[in-house]
Amino acid sequence: MSTNRNNISRRDFVKGAATGLVAGTFASMGMYSYSPWAYSRLPKTQRNQQDFGTCRSVRVTNISETSWFNNAHLIGDIHEAGGLLVNQYTLNWAPLANGKGSGKGSYEEGISTIKDLLPHDLEKAWEIQKKLSLHPENPGGYSCLLEVEALDGTVRKFLLDTGWSYEWMDSCFKREGIDQMLRDQEIEALFISHEHWDHFWGLPVTMKYDNRIPLYVHDGFYKEGLQYIKDSGYKGEPVIVNKPVTQIAPGMALLKFDVPIINRVFGETSLAFNIKDKGLVLVSGCNHQGILQFADFAFTNLKYDNDKFYGIYGGLHISPFEDWDPKYDDLVIALGQWGFELIGCNHCTGHLTAKKFVEAGYPVVRGTARFRSASEDYLGNGDKITFG
């Protein structure tokens, strides 16, 4: 991305603006509103670019992007419990259910049913929770492996998120060899993007294989989340991320966003990589901060090769429940102005959004729809993408 973010060709702009918008709607909004001339009236962004080094490449292995298997069950349970603002620990979902029904769960009662089994006997723990929870077959999880190649050729491995279902995530870890990597302590750290069930509640699966792995969490975690880290069998001290930018390795930084999220979760961390001679790569769990805030924060605060955005991967949180609203088209259009050369999306990006990206001509890396992933329009379970 060049310093002048408004340098968009007319042809590319018109092509992007037409995507997903009927002609009448677009005309009523006015061509000018979507043009680079409109943006030229805004004040220039003051950039304070932090140098966080350079790496040669990043390979992402999608361990699991299928956080749940049935949208209707997930949304139905949330609404029955009281809606999107309800505390997630009261939803009565495994592994923290107490058997009392929708909206009547509690962390203390739920964990008490399995605490003595964590993390050594996950099969028994999950079987107990299946009998106490709502829709016990619905949980899946989100998790990916990051292999970061340094300029000297050394490869370092990291995990982003640890999924939800003990049963599902353990099978996914074994499928991709993550279990052995953890046993051998090849994976240097685990980053929990945010406190939501589908990214965090599978923590005992990681603890089963390495209960001392360095663990990074946003400083917005609630007391239940911090307690769950201990109850999952973690023997270390979690790193509480409280700075906007934390360098992890040369060319790798953890970015902190303070944002309220549904079901009483607060804050998300995402990752940025500076790929030599290519530019910036952004990786997210759910991207609750939004694509535009994510990109704008990186543009404003990070220094990267060629001053160019190169790639993005992960859940981009546009249409996670496969609904569509015309305002989402604005996000599809806006993504184009950042000029990504590789887009690897899945999870809460939504199938419909992925199709919109493809139809818009964006450089989406497609997947294989294996292992219960539902679409080839994005990177599904077991698929890989390499940046650099």
TrEMBL record:
Can you say where in the cell this protein is located? Periplasm
Q: Which UniProt keywords apply?
A: Iron, Iron-sulfur, Membrane, Metal-binding, Transferase, Transmembrane, Transmembrane helix
Tell whether Metal-binding is among the UniProt keywords.
yes
Q: Which InterPro entries match?
A: Metallo-B-lactamas, Metallo-beta-lactamase_dom, RibonucZ/Hydroxyglut_hydro, TAT_signal, TAT_signal_bac_arc
Gene3D superfamilies in the cross-refs = Ribonuclease Z/Hydroxyacylglutathione hydrolase-like
Q: Does the keyword Membrane apply?
A: yes
Location (main, coarse): periplasm
What this protein is called in its record is 7, 8-dihydropterin-6-yl-methyl-4-(Beta-D-ribofuranosyl)aminobenzene 5'-phosphate synthase
EC code(s) of this entry: 2.5.1.105
- Locate the Metallo-beta-lactamase domain: which residues? 156-222
Q: Which organism is it from?
A: Desulfomicrobium macestii
The entry describes its oligomerization and partners as: Heterodimer of a large and a small subunit.
Q: Name one Pfam family in it.
A: Lactamase_B_2
Q: Membrane-spanning regions, if any? A: 12-34
Question: PANTHER family from the xrefs?
Answer: METALLO-BETA-LACTAMASE SUPERFAMILY PROTEIN, METALLO-BETA-LACTAMASE SUPERFAMILY PROTEIN (AFU_ORTHOLOGUE AFUA_3G07630)
Task: Give this protein's Gene Ontology molecular function annotations.
Answer: 7,8-dihydropterin-6-yl-methyl-4-(beta-D-ribofuranosyl)aminobenzene 5'-phosphate synthase
